């Protein structure tokens, strides 16, 4: 009879093993912690002021000039001035907001428990994808029946983003002044505004962070992709970190509005230029994009199922390798997290970031016009993912200490297996 067992060098029995960490490893952890750079208030002011201006210029160059700076200069810096007095933009945002509220409450959902840094369990409603998909289908249905112009979201996109910006800022200010108003911190107001005060704030039992970034932003993204097709009058294939990010300007406006404008940029350029790759190449790129998206989802799902089963699960019909890492939660109690070293996470510690980047990169391949803004979206995403990985690594060093170093010895690559 064949007997299988977990590896004694990297499994649950590793809790009681003597650490192989030396003094140099501990010194490295201390240096990483001491070298943390806190954002200066003046820098936060600058980002808050400059990023909306940059997003507006970026959207104008992509939508009016096919992403070409030379055309932008030739037209004497012509910008797209949105009509804020139009009722269309207000109606678009209001309808999306209202339908998402209704879907939040009436659609069935597989709720997930997410563990925060304090060790608390948060329930996350997970029907945002099907909600956004249903709204997109309703949009196509209405446009097909002639209730409205199918390009209406494209035509009023910047005005809708401005309304969305006002909503995000209003929510952030409400959370700062009225949500747990008696709590005081030593942080300057601008830093609390930028990063947020609450990790998972709820208003009328609605998870604000999830509602803004996973419902409204995702829906706008999907509708914009569909609306670009109506605008260009031709069919082309399209596809349009929250556990530690608090509900502030960085998370709500940055993810909800700024990244919405940036990552829909390839669609803007494609819809405006009305020229792209051939249908065959477009189909191949679409298949490749779907593969990367499936891999990205499979990576996240594998880690979630592993954690949910407390390591008692088969991966590729084998017992998984993992490290049981002890840490102190915010209440000072000892807790244990299981660090997976099998399956997708045997080759790299952040392989899900790799597949996410490749997904965005394929969207830029749909265009014939090669310029700076064609690949601005994946380039920016690469910078964001690298910064996020660096922050994750630092946080894990501080949280797990020698256990994380042991894990890094077992899974040495960060982003690309065999390279880095």
UniProtKB/TrEMBL annotation:
InterPro entries: ERG24_DHCR-like (IPR001171)
MF terms (GO), sorted A to Z: 7-dehydrocholesterol reductase activity
An example Gene Ontology CC term for this record: endoplasmic reticulum membrane
Transmembrane segments: 42-61, 81-106, 126-148, 157-179, 212-231, 252-271, 277-295, 372-389
Primary site of residence: membrane
Class of this enzyme: oxidoreductase
Domain of life (superkingdom): Eukaryota
Reaction(s) catalysed by this chain's protein: cholesterol + NADP(+) = 7-dehydrocholesterol + NADPH + H(+); 7-dehydrodesmosterol + NADPH + H(+) = desmosterol + NADP(+)
Keywords: Cholesterol biosynthesis, Cholesterol metabolism, Lipid biosynthesis, Lipid metabolism, Membrane, NADP, Oxidoreductase, Steroid biosynthesis, Steroid metabolism, Sterol biosynthesis, Sterol metabolism, Transmembrane, Transmembrane helix
Membrane topology (UniProt): Multi-pass membrane protein
Compartments where located: Membrane
Example GO biological process: brassinosteroid biosynthetic process
This enzyme's EC code(s): 1.3.1.21
Family of the protein in this entry: Belongs to the ERG4/ERG24 family.
Protein name in UniProt: 7-dehydrocholesterol reductase
Native source species: Panagrolaimus davidi
């Amino acid at each position: 009879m064949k007997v299988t067992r977990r590896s004694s060098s990297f499994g649950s029995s590793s809790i009681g093993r003597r650490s192989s960490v030396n003094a140099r490893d501990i010194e490295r952890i201390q240096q990483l912690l001491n070298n943390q750079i806190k954002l200066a208030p003046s820098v936060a002011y600058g980002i808050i002021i400059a990023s909306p201006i940059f997003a507006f210029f970026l959207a104008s160059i992509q939508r009016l000039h096919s992403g070409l700076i030379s055309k932008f200069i030739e037209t004497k810096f012509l910008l797209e001035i949105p009509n804020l007095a139009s009722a269309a933009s207000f109606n678009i945002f209001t309808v999306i907001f209202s339908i998402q509220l209704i879907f939040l409450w009436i659609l069935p959902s597989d709720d997930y428990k997410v563990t925060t840094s304090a060790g608390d369990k948060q329930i996350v409603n997970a029907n945002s994808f099907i909600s956004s998909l249903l709204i997109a289908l309703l949009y196509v249905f209405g446009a097909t029946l002639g209730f409205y112009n199918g390009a209406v979201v494209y035509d009023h996109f910047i005005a809708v983003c401005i309304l969305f910006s006002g909503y995000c800022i209003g929510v952030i200010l409400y959370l700062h002044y009225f949500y747990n108003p008696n709590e005081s911190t030593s942080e300057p107001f601008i830093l609390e505004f930028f990063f947020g005060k609450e990790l998972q704030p709820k208003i009328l039992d609605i998870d604000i962070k999830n509602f803004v970034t996973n419902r409204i932003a995702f829906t706008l993204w999907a509708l914009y992709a569909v609306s670009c097709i109506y605008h260009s009058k031709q069919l082309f294939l399209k596809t349009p970190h929250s556990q530690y990010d608090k509900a502030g300007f960085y998370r709500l406006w940055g993810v909800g509005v700024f990244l919405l404008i940036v990552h829909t940029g390839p669609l803007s350029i494609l819809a405006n230029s009305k020229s792209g790759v051939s249908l065959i190449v477009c189909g191949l790129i679409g298949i490749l994009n779907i593969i990367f998206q499936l891999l990205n989802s499979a990576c996240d799902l594998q880690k979630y199922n592993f954690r949910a089963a407390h390591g008692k699960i088969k991966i590729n019909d084998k017992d998984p390798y993992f490290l049981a890492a002890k840490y102190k939660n915010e209440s000072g109690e000892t807790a244990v997290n299981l660090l997976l070293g099998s399956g997708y996470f045997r080759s790299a510690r952040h392989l899900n970031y790799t597949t996410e980047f490749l997904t965005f990169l394929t969207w830029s391949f749909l265009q014939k016009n090669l310029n700076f803004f064609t690949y601005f979206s994946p380039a920016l995403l690469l910078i964001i993912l690298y910064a996020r990985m660096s922050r994750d690594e630092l946080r894990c060093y501080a949280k797990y200490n020698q256990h994380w170093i042991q894990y890094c010895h077992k899974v040495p690559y960060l982003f690309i297996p065999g390279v880095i």
